[in-house]
Amino acid sequence: MSLIMFWTRAFCVLLVIITVCHSDSPVPAPRYILNLDVAPEKRWNDIVSHWNLTKIHEELAYVMKEEIPEMLVPVVELLASDIDKYIPEPYSSEMVGVAKAMGIKLGDIVTLNLLYDITASCTSIVAEDSNGQIWHGRNLDYTFTSILRNLTLTYDAQINGTTVFTASTFLGFVGVLTGIKPKVFTLSIDERDQGELWENLIELVNALLMGEASLVTLLSRDAMMKANTFESAVKLMSETQIVAPAYYIIGGVQPGEGAVITRDRLTAKDVWRLDSKNKRWFLVETNYDHWLPPPSSDDRR
Ligand SMILES: *[C@@H]1O[C@H](CO)[C@@H](O)[C@H](O)[C@H]1NC(C)=O
Ligand SMILES: *[C@@H]1O[C@H](CO)[C@@H](O)[C@H](O)[C@H]1NC(C)=O
Ligand SMILES: *[C@@H]1O[C@H](CO)[C@@H](O)[C@H](O)[C@H]1NC(C)=O
Question: Does the record bear rRNA-binding in its keywords (predicted)?
Answer without folding.
Answer: no
